[in-house]
Amino acid sequence: MDEHTSAEPRKRLRHRIPTSLRQHWTIAVALVAFVALVGTVFGTSRIRPYITGDPTVIASEITENIAGTVDLFDTSVDHEVSIDISDVEYDDMIDAYVDDGEKEWVTADVTIDGTVITDVGVRLKGNSTLSALRGGMGEGPGGGEGSGGPPGGSELPGGFELPDDVELPEGFDPAEMFAGGEGMPGMGGTSISTDDPTSLPLLIDFSKNVEGRAYQGMTQLSVRPGSPVLNEAMALSLTDATDQPTQRYAYTVYSVNGSATATRLLLEHPDESYANSLFDSDGYLYKADASSSFTYVGDDQADYTDQFEQINAEGTGDVQPIISFLKWMDSASDEEFDAHLADWVDVDSFAQYVATQNLLVNGDDMSGPGQNYYLWYDLDTKKISVVSWDLNMAMQGGTTAGPSDTVSMGGGMGGPGGRRGQGGAPGAAATGMAPPEGATPSEGRTQPNGDGGEGRSMGGNTLKSRFLDSDAFTDVYEAAYWDLYEQMYGSGLALSILDGLASGVPTSDGLTAESLQSSVDSMRTWIQQRTDALAAI
Predict the structure, then answer these.
(1) Which partner from 2, 22, 88, 132 sits 20 to 30 angstroms from 366, CA to CA?
(2) Region 349-378: what's the mean pLDDT?
(3) What's the pLDDT at 152?
(4) pLDDT for the residue numbered 127
(5) Residue 513 · residue 271 · CB < 8 Å
(6) What is the pLDDT of residues 7-52, one digit of tens each?
(7) Domain residue ranges of the chain, discontinuous segments joined by +
(8) What CA–CA distance (Å, rounded) separates 65 from 218?
(9) What distance in Å separates the CA atoms of residue 334 and residue 345, rounded to the nearest whole number?
(10) DSSP character for 223?
(11) How many C-alpha atoms does 482 have within 13 Å on its Cβ side?
């Protein structure tokens, strides 16, 4: 007999209740209600807080943790991930983005290393890469919809226009930088197509349809586009190896709806559990939105909901630490900034973060057009630190930027001007080439040094620029820089990590051994050139 089949008809519940209790049911109901109230207020029930700054309430709510067969981040074993999604759900997801730019959640079944998880939420993820689905560049990194384009059909990031008398150099295609293109060391192709679901960047959410569900403690995973994207894996590994907060990753053989396989990077996506295990102390983790400006816009927390998303202690609405800091920085003179920044920011940690982004040649960090970073507010020290995020533009392009140079998108140095916190010229090519002189953002786009305004930011961050421009922090920054240089490059660590990746990245239908070796060789050349350039300073 099936375990779900009863041997006899289910008895009606009221016939199991004693007569005396049925006659005095109102007393019993009142008692049960009272006990439930006491349990809710004083018990150990999992209740999300609403308004509180008490660190004792910061706890992730995982009620179903799927163990899986092997640790997803165990590099000693091969991993396989497949997604099964109906044609209707897939078409809905694509149409919502193509038509309206909406990243609509749909439902799929996900199999990880043989473990099937049903009813999983899946949506498209990203900005610049996805814009190729909407007829060209559309959005730049973190950008909005574009208007106009350069001669020859190649489109610049959204809203970025060339003067009539300016032509792009022959062979320069901005679309290759963001929506695909070979030749970026260790990156591999990142072109995407709706005809190839495995090419699309996705966010997987195990708790979207089943509250409290996680896979090995994670509620979300990010499927990165491109293969083998060694540059991103290298940047993540080097950040971790230098004892800085980052995200775990795994290479997998990946398929969608029984398709040909591809090699994909799966990345831990910061959630509540991630935030609560990031540091030894308690604190709040905030994600900066791609359109955020990191500027003070008043004391009302509601005015910051589109700039920062609180990852843990959800429901507290507590972005006050960020508001207070931005308010102070907005009015602080240079002298006050130098004297009191350490009261607000973990300066040593921030110096490491800024130095690391330069060493990794990442032009799309907290000052880049994508505004890729998280903020951590430590409840013990009452100080802010920065956590890196989305390193897919790191370790490619130019290799010569030193500690006093601005790193632009694609790895090139920005124009002259010494140490600057901005991400360099927005839209610079992967070769390090900046947009032609006279090319300016069209009306409605945010300038790199502007005040943010409406729409997407094209880069810039006041904290980073003021920090780098101040002589008061030169020593701490340069000390961190050269210490990290020695750890990453001088010691040979980067090449050692690359050797490990070369033997650990799986091949697939979409990634041959020859293609992988070519990417490894390109990445090795880049690392050596970067090491030599810095050693010569």
Answers:
(1) 132
(2) 96
(3) 37
(4) 80
(5) no
(6) 333 333 333 344 344 444 454 445 445 444 444 444 433 322 223 3
(7) 65-272
(8) 8
(9) 15
(10) E
(11) 9
Token couple for 325 = 């800091």
Amino acid letter at 80? E
Q: Coil, helix or strand for 43?
A: coil
What is the distance of C-alpha 214 from the center of its chain? 19
The residue type at 374 = Y
| Residue ranges in 24-86 assigned as alpha helix (H) | 25-42
SS3 content of the chain, % helix, strand, coil (to 5): 35, 15, 50
- The contacts of residue 527 (CB under 8 Å, 6+ apart) are 234, 395, 489, 494, 495, 498
Task: Compute the distance between CA of residue 327 and CA of residue 383 in angstroms, rounded to an integer.
Answer: 15
Nearest to 408 by CA among 99, 32, 418, 397: 397
Name the phi and psi angles at 309, rounded to 5.
Answer: -105, 125
**What is the residue type of 160?**
F
Q: Is the pLDDT of residue 172 over 80?
A: no
CA–CA separation, 532 vs 518, rounded Å?
21
Tokens encoding 458: 């094209």
- Convert the pLDDT of each residue in 465-489 to its tens digit: 999 999 999 999 999 999 999 999 9
Give yes or no for residue 269 having a pLDDT over 90.
Answer: yes
C-alpha closest to that of 275 among 226, 323, 309, 306: 309
Q: Are 156 and 435 in contact (CB under 8 A)?
A: yes
Question: Per residue in 276-293, is it b (16+ CB within 10 Å) or e — as a string?
Answer: bebeeebbbbbbbbbbbb
Q: What is the pLDDT of residue 35?
A: 40
To the nearest whole percent, how much of the chain has pLDDT over 70? 69
What pLDDT, on a 0 to 100 scale, did the predictor assign at position 409? Answer: 72
Structure-block tokens of residue 497 = 């990590």
Chain-centre distance of CA 203, in angstroms?
11
